[in-house]
Design goal:
This protein has helices at 28-38, 43-54, 58-74, and strands at residues 8-9, 14-16, 23-25. The protein has one domain. The protein is globular and about 35 Å long. Strands 1-2-3 form a three-stranded antiparallel beta sheet, with no helix packed on it. It is mostly helical and 78 residues long. 51% of the residues lie in helices and 10% in strands.
């Protein structure tokens, strides 16, 4: 399993990478994914959480999790 780089998060969706000094703004779904990845929750389980919490299909939630993880990789956060 891939590790999420250590980010400082606040409840309003502000994320700060102390290693690079970069900051990011996360929406509600991104916060669920980031917090889940920090806890070691697998992507498919995160998709189930998103489907329940945001009333979307499991397929859409899984796509969203995979897309967001691709973004995290692009920014070298994952």
């Amino acid at each position: 399993m891939q590790r999420l780089r250590s980010l400082a998060l606040n409840p309003d969706g502000f994320a700060f990478d102390p290693t690079t000094g970069e900051s990011y703004t996360l929406n509600a779904t991104a916060m669920v994914v980031v917090e889940g990845l920090r806890k070691g929750i697998p992507p498919n389980e995160l998709a189930h959480q998103l489907a329940e919490q945001f009333d979307v299909s499991l397929e859409e939630a899984l796509r969203d999790v995979e897309d967001f993880m691709d973004h995290l990789r692009t920014f070298r956060l994952l």
